[in-house]
Amino acid sequence: MEQWIRNFFDNYVSDMYFPNVHLTDVIEILIVTVIVYEIMLWMKNTKAWMLLKGMIVLAAFILLAAIFQMHTILYLAKTSINVLAIAAVVVFQPELRRALEKLGEKNLLSNINPFDRSKDNQRFSDETLEALVKSCFDMGSVSTGALIVVEQAIRLTEYEMTGIELDCKVSTQILLNIFEHNTPLHDGAVIVRGDRITSATCYLPLSDNMQISKELGTRHRAALGMSEVSDALIIIVSEESGQVSVAMGGQLVRGITPEYLASRLSQIQYRTSEHKKFTIWKGRQRHEEV
Ligand SMILES: Nc1ncnc2c1ncn2[C@@H]1O[C@H](COP(=O)(O)OP(=O)(O)OP(=O)(O)O)[C@@H](O)[C@H]1O
């Protein structure tokens, strides 16, 4: 046996090339792995996924053209590659912007300590959380439509500007009043920053997601659209069914319970939970429609 092992090493292993692996190489491999993983997740959650699928089909087509020596197709592919790259940047400008914003806003140091639940790290208070939950389900029970955007790391100033500026503390009464039918502020969305409502009647970007259920109208589409271009959590109260839904990271969860909404809000209540929250929303969950 010993002889066999010795022979094996002499015959096969001694001729193998083992590069010198340093600690920096391992760190480099880990960094590249994380970057590739993040890019793949980003692609999966955006329209870039479609682009990737399109690119794979195009690459397969070009490969076939190369195998069968189709020179005209190869020439066209070669000359149009630069144009296609620029076109991709233009088409995916919102997604790229969002990805860079996310990168810039992520507080890496605070992520190191996920248990830091100090007041300084609090995005909004328990009072605000309770007021949001209570008002949404109160409105749902009387079929009053509502759209509430809870801002996180990405500032929503450009959307605030589409509405009427407010500066008041979040409370159940104020929210019920704002969304009351036939009142001047009931149309559009409310934006909540911290414990304050900063704006009402805001216009949100509509999602062009083809998979969204046809029974959902523009309120839900606007919530989903907003969740695609920002990291905000958006609460929707349906005027038609009284159902409460929530959108975040391009995912919509319909027909939620007060406990579910409270738990989603508490996940984003502290700034330190930023990383956790992104991870949670990467996969689809129960109730998710799109
Ligand atoms: N882009 C938008 N930004 C903000 N609010 C919007 C936007 N589009 C529609 N809304 C709000 O949604 C209301 C219309 O809702 P609509 O009935 O079309 O949607 P829905 O998803 O079917 O919701 P519901 O279940 O409440 O009927 C508008 O009155 C307005 O308040």
Distance between the termini: 60 Å
Report the sheet with the most strands, covering strand number, pairing sense and barrel closure: 7 strands, mixed
Low-confidence stretches: 273-288
Order of helices and strands: HHHHHHHEHEHEEHEEEHH
Instruction: Please give the CATH class of the largest domain.
Output: Alpha Beta
- Under the CATH scheme, the architecture of the largest domain is 3-Layer(aba) Sandwich
Map the helices and strands:
Layout: H1 2-11, H2 23-44, H3 48-67, H4 71-91, H5 93-105, H6 108-112, H7 126-141, E1 146-150, H8 157-160, E2 164-169, H9 172-178, E3 189-193, E4 196-202, H10 218-229, E5 233-237, E6 244-248, E7 251-253, H11 258-268, H12 274-280
Parallel strand pairs: 1-3
Antiparallel strand pairs: 1-5, 2-4, 3-4, 5-6, 6-7
Helix pairs in contact: 2-3, 3-4, 7-9, 7-11
Bound molecules: adenosine-5'-triphosphate.
InterPro entries: C-di-AMP_synthase, CdaA, CdaA_N, DisA, DNA_integrity_DisA_N_sf, DNA_integrity_scan_DisA_N
GO molecular function: adenylate cyclase activity; ATP binding; diadenylate cyclase activity
Catalytic activity: 2 ATP = 3',3'-c-di-AMP + 2 diphosphate
Word description of this protein:
The chain has 12 helices and 7 strands. It is an alpha+beta fold and 290 residues long. It has 2 domains: 1-105, no CATH class; 126-269, DNA integrity scanning protein, DisA, N-terminal domain (YojJ-like (1), CATH 3.40.1700. Strands 2-4-3-1-5-6-7 form a 7-stranded mixed sheet, with helices on both faces. β3 (189-193) and β4 (196-202) form a beta hairpin. α7 (126-141) runs antiparallel to α11 (258-268). 28% of the residues are buried. The structure holds adenosine-5'-triphosphate. Adenosine-5'-triphosphate binds next to α10. Adenosine-5'-triphosphate is lined by residues 145, 147, 187-189, 203-204, 206, 216-220, 222, 238-240.
